[in-house]
Amino acid sequence: ISFYAYPGAPQKWDEFVIQMTQDDCPYRSAESIAAQWDLYGPWDSEQRLRGAWEGIEYERAFSAFDELSIGEPDTDSEPDKIWHVGIGIDHGERQGREVAVLLIWDKTTIYIIDEYVSSTTTDTTQDAVEILEMIHRNGFEASDIDLAYGDINTMGKGMVGYRINDILGREMNVKINNASKGKVMDGVALCNLGFKRNQIKVSPTCVNLIKSLKHWKPEPTKEDLKHMIDAMIYICRKVTEKYIDKTNGVSSVDIKR
Fold first, then answer.
1. N or C: which terminus of the chain has fewer CB atoms within 10 Å of its end residue's CB?
2. 77-89: per-residue pLDDT in tens?
């Protein structure tokens, strides 16, 4: 990158992006360039080999989350298969900053299929309506929800957590359990193990969750990324404890070994 300007002139930037190609690296053989490309997956190669501005955070908490973690369930091939449905909610730090994830699972695999991120202008009722809409657009009714967890953080939010949980709980006909903040890193370790074992998948439509998984790290933490992480951990942790086959799937016991 170069910058130049003469006095009184508008500032001007020129950007030269050097990519790992024979045109830009004529001193390298085609074989050595191909070998270097083979070292990296699509996420790494964009920044390391193509010179993209944005890459993944290498000190991120979810180091096992990669391209293979992106996927959707094949519900068409097994139309009679019974899927459980769950939702995780984090109320953020300010009113109107609600996030939620919708997931389905069988005995071995969790699929996070959709997400909700509120605008800054919503109130508690609007947030509840939008979360219900997320459920409906995925072909489910509120009554289909088997398990739901949401935090009750009320600092500066006038009991927002309690109110949204109450509204949604009545619609879903299931109690939204109060998620405990607990040991965050235990939940991180559990989900990271799930990604490593290919037992947790995230739909490519969950762009905010994917961004958080690619970049969030506990210290120093970024709150705008952490809300999606919390919502995912709340529900995934309980699903693994209650439903996932401990012989084949992710187990909360494994993170203590």
1. C
2. 777 788 999 999 8
Residue 176 β-bridge partners: none
Cis geometry, peptide bond prior to residue 220 (ω within 30 degrees of 0): yes
What is the greatest pairwise CA distance in the chain? 72
CA of 226: how far to CAs of 26, 192, 210, 230, in Å?
43, 15, 12, 6
With bands split at pLDDT 50, 70 and 90, how would you rate the model's confidence at 205?
very high
- CA atoms of 84 and 103, how far apart (whole Å): 8
CA distance 182 to 219: 17
Q: Which residue has the tokens 């509204």?
A: 167
Question: Could you tell me which residues come within 8 angstroms of residue 18 by beta carbon, excluding any fewer than 6 positions away?
Answer: 24, 25, 51
* Under 8 Å between Cβ of 242 and 105: no
Q: What is the model's pLDDT at position 51?
A: 73
Check if the beta carbon of residue 216 is closer than 8 Å to that of residue 226: yes
The DSSP code for 10 is: P
4 token code pair: 């130049």
Which 3 state secondary structure label does DSSP give 13?
Answer: strand
Burial profile 225-253: b = 16 or more Cβ within 10 angstroms, e = fewer: bbbbbbbbbbbbbbbbeebbeeeebbbbe
Residues 18-40: tens digit of each pLDDT: 888 888 888 889 999 888 888 77
DSSP H/E element including 198: none
In which residue are the tokens 């951990």 written? 233
Q: Is residue 67 a contact partner of residue 198, using CB atoms and an 8 Å limit?
A: no
